[in-house]
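Bumping with the actual sequence this time:
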Amino acid sequence: MVDKKYQVFVSSTFRDLVEERQDTIRNILDLNHIPAGMELFPAADVEQLTYIKKVIDECDYYLLIVGGRYGSLDAEGISFTEREYDYAVETGKFVIAFVHGEPGAISVQNSDVKPKLAASLNAFREKVMSGRLVRQWTNRQDLQLAVLKSLMHSFTAYPQTGWIRGNAAANQETLEQANAALQENVRLRAELAKMRAEPTERFPDIADLDDEVVIRYSYKYKSSSGIRYPDTNAKFTWRELFLGLASNLSTPRTEGIILDALTMATEQKGERTPFRINSTDRATIKIQFIALGLISARVSKTTDGKMAEFLTLTERGQQVYISNKVVRKDKD
């Protein structure tokens, strides 16, 4: 799997949370992801806020830390930190928020003592804590443990778009294309197997394996007057003929193998051993098993470079042969 890196925007007031921000950024780096924040350009005017919004747009997660200060205000009396938060929520960023659980215990130098600022901070706290799961913290150590756990959980449970190296992206794209081609190949093979498994749909009245057929052939007969080849015939089921044929088709063979199949069938039934099979009946046997989807025929080169037709078992043919030859448990 491609190593994906997430970009996390760290938002908070600046001067009162310098150490907490540094710890958070270090945790993000330790997890092999990318921190983003305005360490060098803290939000102080509209132009910088516009730039910050662009940075937030490029991030996968928005991480907010709320301490004891409301922060610098814009012309409308709203802190730039709250503006960042509102924009992250408005644009659908995944928000991870940490709010100080004991604001009254924060030192005066890190708190807003003016009533108006304190009221704005309380309102902002309530906004952040309503409608979402928020972790509270009381000291620097608690905060960093909470940050680490929350980030690891969010990366696993709520994965975002993330970033990957350009060469890794190319490899991933190739991998996805290969996988798509493989899935398509599997689908087509399944459809082909289904078509092969249901050949009788094309021939609704075709004889099945348990139907009988009369095969004409000649046999070798020795007498005092010499050797003769009289004609005869015998009745077989298509299954008897197929099992004799399939037992000799572990590798592709020419249609002469049909005579061997007939020989096996006659031996099992106690009939005369064939010397030559009737050419019409030989062709009928081949066509019947092709129509039943049990064998296939293809033209290929022989060992001496000539062209010949070779017969092979299909997947369905293999299944039928194995099903008929497998040894089963006694029912007693």
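The tokens above came from a reply further down the thread. Residues 71 and 284 are 93 Å apart (CA to CA).
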